[in-house]
């Protein structure tokens, strides 16, 4: 079983992750991790913190000479900002004056602060926000890079782009856009808001600038596209094996992502079945390409409103997911809250913060989706060594024709 754990506080010494159940023989270079870590730090609307942190992973176990060993993988991502927090976040002894100076007692509406202090019995919100911070997603992006490295061996790509920002919309990806699914991220990375359209990018940036001037924050929608998947990942046989459920859970586990849809789920709910379900065709040779140029297996669809998943299983069309992110809770013009030490009404804390992080969240979205797809792939074709997984996969492809 492909599992992982992450650890680390936002201003602590280091973030770290351990992955277990990852096969031997997968090619992984630390540059692949660093590339995605850097992509997570970009995006119009980020705050000063991201200028301080230049994330780099250090693989400390499980890889030798660029190939995984089959033993547990471990990595670190150090927090460069720790030098400024050493006397507040030290595991042993801290400077009481400095700790008091950084104490937070005014929980932010929309954040983990209030429920966190109540649940864990803290009187300093910092003890909550240090881990509840989306800095945690750094480690999941690194785990996702390992997952992508595995999927690379089977030509499965996981890409993303932003389709709405603060109410400004841009087109979702379709095969008719002329963009191969595997190229979506490369093109999106050229835009500061990870939007595929130039006009959309310009309008989104204008919207962010306005929010900045108004000292407000924004949310948005990003799309994740998985291509090259064979039919049959996930299963209908138990509720928790359903691939759509797993992917939606993974997306909603990203801080501030409050909803996710598979295919055009929301629009489908208002349409009759005749305009929703994707008709099935068998490949004959000169038929039109499938809805997403996915060429795994003998069947294809001309539409993909199901988003590539039926009955909790991939159906060999590209998997299309959309995630809905709320605006960031830390506001430079803070909302009202209650001071937990005095009980008095006060303005919420204004920890250094971003204005909008939809582009970064979309990179995290790629990672969490890649982790789930890799997990489902290993459950289906798994083995301890890549060579056996390949043989299992090829055998399956041969059987389904
Ligand atoms: C990449 C990324 C960066 C984020 N940066 C911030 C930030 O700078 N300030 C903030 O208040 N929230 C930020 N958030 C959102 C909060 O972490 C999130 O709203 C909070 O943990 C509460 O969880 P919930 O919104 O899922 O309920 C960010 C989210 C993501 C995905």
Give the topology.
Blueprint (H helix, E strand, L loop, with lengths): L2 E5 L6 E7 L3 E4 L2 H12 L7 H4 L4 E5 L1 E2 L2 E3 L3 E6 L7 H4 L6 H6 L11 H8 L5 H7 L4 H16 L4 E9 L2 E2 L14 H5 L9 H16 L6 E8 L15 H10 L4 E6 L2 H4 L11 E3 L16 E3 L7 E2 L2 E2 L4 E7 L10 E3 L6 E3 L10 H24 L4 H15 L1
Antiparallel strand pairs: 1-2, 2-7, 3-6, 4-7, 5-6, 8-9, 8-10, 10-16, 11-16, 12-13, 14-15, 17-18
Structure notes:
This protein is an alpha+beta fold and 401 residues long. The chain has one domain: Chorismate synthase, AroC fold. It is 33% helix and 20% strand. The chain contains 13 helices and 18 strands. The protein has helices at residues 30-41, 49-52, 86-89, 96-101, 113-120, 126-132, 137-152, 184-188, 198-213, 243-252, 265-268, 358-381, 386-400, and strands at 3-7, 14-20, 24-27, 57-61, 63-64, 67-69, 73-78, 157-165, 168-169, 220-227, 257-262, 280-282, 299-301, 309-310, 313-314, 319-325, 336-338, 345-347. The strands form six sheets. A five-stranded antiparallel beta sheet has the order 9-8-10-16-11. The chain has a four-stranded antiparallel beta sheet with strand order 1-2-7-4. A three-stranded antiparallel beta sheet has the order 3-6-5, with no helix packed on it. A hairpin with a 2-residue loop joins strand 8 and strand 9 (168-169). The longest helix has 24 residues, at 358-381. It is globular, with a radius of gyration of 22 Å. Bound molecules: flavin mononucleotide.
């Amino acid at each position: 079983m492909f599992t992982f754990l992450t650890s680390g506080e936002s201003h602590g010494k280091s973030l770290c992750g351990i992955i277990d159940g990852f096969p031997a023989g997968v090619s992984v270079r630390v540059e692949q991790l660093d590339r995605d870590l850097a992509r997570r730090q970009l995006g119009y609307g980020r705050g000063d913190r991201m200028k301080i942190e230049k994330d780099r992973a250090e693989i400390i176990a499980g890889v030798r000479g660029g190939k995984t060993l089959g033993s547990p993988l471990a990595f670190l991502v150090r927090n460069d900002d720790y030098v400024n927090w050493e006397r507040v976040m030290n595991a042993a002894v801290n400077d009481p004056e400095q700790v008091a100076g950084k104490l937070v007692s005014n929980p932010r509406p929309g954040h983990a602060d209030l429920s966190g202090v109540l649940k864990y019995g803290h009187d300093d919100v910092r003890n909550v926000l240090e881990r509840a911070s989306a800095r945690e997603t750094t480690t999941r992006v690194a785990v996702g890079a390992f997952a992508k490295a595995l999927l690379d061996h089977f030509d499965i790509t996981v890409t993303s782009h932003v389709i709405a920002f603060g109410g400004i919309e841009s087109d979702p990806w379709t095969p008719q856009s002329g963009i191969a699914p595997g190229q979506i991220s490369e093109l999106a990375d050229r835009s500061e808001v990870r939007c595929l359209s130039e006009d959309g990018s310009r309008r989104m940036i204008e919207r962010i600038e306005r929010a900045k001037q108004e000292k407000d924050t924004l949310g948005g929608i990003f799309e994740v596209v998985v291509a090259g998947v064979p039919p049959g990942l996930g299963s209908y046989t138990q509720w928790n094996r359903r691939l759509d459920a797993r992917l939606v859970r993974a997306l909603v586990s990203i801080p501030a992502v409050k909803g996710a849809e598979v295919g055009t789920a929301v629009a489908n709910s208002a349409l009759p079945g005749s305009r929703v379900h994707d008709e099935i065709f068998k490949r004959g040779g000169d038929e039109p390409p499938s809805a997403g140029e996915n060429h795994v297996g003998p069947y294809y669809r001309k539409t993909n409103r199901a988003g590539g998943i039926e009955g909790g299983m991939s159906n060999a069309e590209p998997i299309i997911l959309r995630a809905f992110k709320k605006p960031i809770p830390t506001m430079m013009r803070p909302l009202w809250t209650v001071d937990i030490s005095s009980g008095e009404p006060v303005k919420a804390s204004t920890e250094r913060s971003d204005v909008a992080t939809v582009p970064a969240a979309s990179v995290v979205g790629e990672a969490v989706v890649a982790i789930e797809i890799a997990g489902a792939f290993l459950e289906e074709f798994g083995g301890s060594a890549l060579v056996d997984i390949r043989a299992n996969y090829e055998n399956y492809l041969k059987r389904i024709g």
